[in-house]
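Below is how a single chain appears once it has passed through the pipeline. First comes the sequence as given, then the structure the pipeline wrote out for it. We keep one example in the README because the format questions we get most often are answered faster by looking than by reading.
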Amino acid sequence: MDSAASSSGCGVGHDSRELGRSGDTEPRPDATAAYDQSSSGFRAGRHPQADAEASGVAEVAKYAPQPARSAAGNHDAPGFALFSGGHDSLCATHVAMTNGYAQEVVHVNTGIGVEATREFVRETCREHGWPLNELTPPRSYDDLVLEHGFPGPAGHQFMYRRLKERCLAAFARERKPRRGAPFVYCTGVRKQESARRMRGQQQEWEHAPKLGWTWRAVILEWSKADCNAYIEARGLRRNPVVDILHMSGECLCGSFARPGERDEIRQWFPETDARIAELEQRVAAAGHHGCVWGQRPPNVARNQLWLIPPGPLCQSCVEAA
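Resulting structure:
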């Protein structure tokens, strides 16, 4: 199914194109033997290689939420699965779409990222017949950095709001059946992914009331081993970008770029590096001090990054930085 487009200046349609299959993995018998592959979900069991890191999660059904409802719990709410192209969001999207928690998929195309991940999202949605809404920000990343320079950690909230949050807010307003109606975004947030998420994170929480949606964490209690086992047991195609860079690469704003990240991008995705390099030249010509992508100010230490709120869709950026 070709991706669907949303309007209000935040949605663009793209034709799906075939993504290379170099990152595909076939389910291994030893990995899938512990799982029941019926539509009812996992039965009790562990991934054979997960003992060192597994959380003790034995089955998907134990942690999967009921069909999404409003915070008040009195109305069924339309659900949309947020699919970045990472493996956590792949699992969350599959769980949400196959169990009725979401009816459509949303991908935010920030305009600065690895194109192969966007192709992976489009192709995966087409393979599964999931309606895809690919959103783009009203103001491009290029325009933002040409005006303000490349962001460091302190600039991440600004980038998050401009590149992602405003798109999601516009889309929610557009798709709500009426003003004030409940609306749910299903995410791949996991407690074990981030020390921050371990502290009091709930399966459902309401975003700023003025933005008008609820986040739904459909794999909140899963470990990374659980995600890998689910991908193998369900025969889902992996994103080769994730297996190479250990991140989805869907947003490369540079705020929390880790040491060596640019070198990895240059080695494996030279076209993305060339785009960043060309943008660096334009930012430098505009006279900004922050004219190098991913360059952290010298007075910001890595152990200070937890003080900077990354936003619900960018928590893993801080952990990797």
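The mean pLDDT is 74.

See the next section for the split statistics.
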